[in-house]
Design a protein that fits this description.
The chain is an alpha+beta fold. The chain has one domain. It has one helix spanning about 45-60, and strands at about 5, 10, 20-30, 35-40, 65-70. The protein has a three-stranded antiparallel sheet, with helices on one face. A two-stranded antiparallel ribbon has the order 1-2. The longest helix is centred in the middle third of the chain and has 17 residues, at about 45-60.
Length: about 90
Amino acid sequence: MTDYWRDLPLDDAEQVKENEPIHYRIHDADRLGLLGFGTARPGPSGWLQIADHHRRVQAANPGRFLMLRRYNQPAGDGFDHEVGPASD
């Protein structure tokens, strides 16, 4: 089933296994702009890394409502690292 955001269809995402790297993207929920993305190790330390990245993106974009979504693969070749404020 396709998810929709403001009448726009989102790409389908596949179920992710818990022992695989965590690929994610951080969007501005109102303007739909991509503000950051990255890949973290599976497990609690990976989620802490993502939370820290989310906090940095939020600090660089005060007042914005952020949306974080997990994906089954990195953003593309060469994008298997964190990108966003203070990480470029």
